[in-house]
Amino acid sequence: MRDDIAAFARIAGVAPGAGSALPWGASRTAFGLELPADYRAFVDAFGAGTVGSRLTLSTPWPLHDAEAGITGLRAMLDEAAEIGSLLRDLREEFPALFPYAFHPEPGGLLGWAGGVGGEQCFWLTEDPDPDAWPVVVWDKADWRRYDMGMVALLIRALTKADPFLSDLVAPERGRPLWNPRG
After folding, report:
1. What's the longest Cα–Cα distance across the chain?
2. Which InterPro entries does the entry mention (predicted)?
3. Residue pLDDT, tens place only, 109-120
């Protein structure tokens, strides 16, 4: 198991699932997009769900299309494209407030989570290596770039190492830090 996945499990007080890995390689071929390894490992270990009480991960749904032999990325990518379209419209109206390109624009932000207050987490896809994609968080017109992967960012948020991120996940005392979608 990856160290970052084990660290998240320890902090969140959950055990990674014992399921098998999704067919990410076939999905890369089918959709023309590879996602970061930490994200794929997280989804393989925990599935879909919400971090803290606010931040819901965008995950393939259904997780696996057994008939096609691929991970169900279409809905996730369609949602990311829809969010990108809305943000591009806002960028046209308020260019100074939206300094990024958005999926499917080349090098654009690709969403991987959303919060109950409209917050969004993205990968900045400028590098051809998805494992080098930094995370960008948008909350209340404030953009923050984090040169780390998704799982490292979630750990940073849950350990309250960054107040901005802690507010993003809003962990509540006595409530689970990971809430799987059932």
Report:
1. 47
2. Knr4/Smi1-like_sf (IPR037883)
3. 999 999 888 899
